[in-house]
Amino acid sequence: MEIRRARREDLDEIGHIAYQSGWTSLTDSSLCRSMAPVLDEHYSPATLKRSLLAGELLVAADDRDIIGFAEIRLRNDHLHMASICMSPVHRGLGVAVRMVDAVRELGPGLPISTDVLLGSGEWEHFYEQAGFFPGETIETAVGDESLVYRRWWSTAS
After folding, report:
1. Is a pLDDT exceeding 90 seen at residue 127?
2. Helix or strand or coil: residue 119?
């Protein structure tokens, strides 16, 4: 498996993984209704293309397929991991840990942040195991509903 910058020909697979990952992680039906517009906007072909052109996408690829990706944005004083998604069949195999390590290598000396929907125990546990610590909460409105995220931080390496 290799982790590399995404290429144009990766976009279809990235979009497919994003939707698989997004929908399989949502179990509450009201949350699904709230998150549908977010997923549609964040992982639209146009949005993914902008992220690709900005150099914000990393992919994990095996011999044949893209099996995961991370979307990273440089902020003033840190890197922000906007998303990390794995193909459901490749979860639990250490791919996401390797992706986080690759993100750390992109910005040596910079802290990393990521936002996790409160109550997403699987991801909260993952980030804690990866050396992140919980920070501030962020509330955002999606339609009529309010969603609360926890920002997780990893100190500069």
Report:
1. yes
2. coil
DSSP annotation of 77 reads S
For residues 75-79, average pLDDT: 92
Q: Compute the chain's Rg from CA coordinates.
A: 15
Q: How far is CA 33 from CA 16, 18, 19, 30, 102, in A?
A: 19, 17, 14, 5, 33
| Residues facing 141 on adjacent strands | 146
Report the alpha-carbon distance of residue 62 to residue 132 in Å, rounded.
27
Structural domains of the chain sorted by starting position, each given as residue range(s) with its CATH number in brackets: 2-110 (3.40.630.30)
Distance CA(117)–CA(104), nearest Å, equals 22
- Cα–Cα distance, 125 to 132 (Å, whole number): 10
- Side-chain-facing half-sphere of 10: CA atoms under 13 Å: 25
The pLDDT tens digits for 25-72 are 555 444 555 666 666 667 778 888 888 888 899 999 998 899 999 999
Q: For residues 132 and 114, is the Cβ–Cβ distance under 8 A?
A: yes
